[in-house]
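Problem: given the chain below (104 residues), write out its structure.
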Amino acid sequence: MGDDGEYHFTIVSRDRMYTIYMVKKWFVTKTYGWGWVPATWQGWAVTALYIVFITWDTAHIEAAANSIPDVFPFVSRVFLATIVLLGICFFTGEKPRWRWGAKT
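Solution.
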């Protein structure tokens, strides 16, 4: 974190380097346990999009999907969406750690 309260991280591609500045973390660590909770409207928007995608994908599972090969595309999409959500939480949130309540 810089002296001005901004958070930033850098993304490097083959030919360019990008620095992304954030005024506030999108996700903060939970009070109990491990993980994040949305802290800004951007965090809530990402969480809502994830829930909408999972709900939509679940509603469109074919009724005939009764074997592993039939369900594999659904499971792989949910797994990929979860990995993307965790990546966004990791890069736009506080450092994850196990917590046992508020510090006193």
